[in-house]
Specification:
binds tetrahydrodeoxyuridine; 4 helices; Cytidine Deaminase, domain 2; alpha+beta; about 30% helix
Length: about 130
């Protein structure tokens, strides 16, 4: 699937707005994500940390949850961090692969115009897919 340049910009903008809402008092590492749904809508998420650190939920998984509860299905994602280009963590890669194993992944930051376009199957080759034997 090829993302139109205008769609890439819309995703990055939505992820940047979400990043500003991040709840990251422990890491001070705000992340925003924006999922493009198959129906063209965009759903955002930010990381939500917790004083019980292991309960932290990443921006990507919160964006996926927002997509699903709206009755939509993810087909691309953008991730925005502050200074560096941040690729989704392993857990988020597996959650994204549930819906579209080859989805485009846009990495951007809020400090520069630098960005990188990759694909989920490059980040997570041989993703697990449940099948009954
Ligand atoms: N984080 C994300 O939200 N997405 C990623 O892809 C990597 C990490 C968050 C989790 C935690 O709140 C903070 O970044 C530092 O790990």
């Amino acid at each position: 699937m090829e993302l139109a340049p205008v769609t890439i910009e819309r995703l990055i903008e939505a992820a940047r707005r979400a990043q500003q809402k991040a709840y990251a008092p422990y890491s001070q590492f705000p992340v925003g994500a924006a999922v493009l749904a198959e129906d063209g809508r965009i759903f955002a998420g930010c990381n939500v940390e917790n004083s019980s650190f292991g309960l932290t939920v990443c921006a990507e998984r919160n964006a996926v949850a927002a997509t699903i509860v709206a009755g939509a299905r993810p087909c691309a994602v953008a991730v925005v961090a502050s200074a560096s280009l941040v690729a989704p963590c392993g857990a988020c890669r597996q959650v994204l692969a549930e819906f579209s194993p080859e989805m485009p992944v846009v990495l951007a930051n809020s400090a520069t115009d630098g960005r990188q376009l990759t694909a989920l199957d490059a980040l997570l080759p041989d993703a697990f897919h449940f099948t009954r034997d």
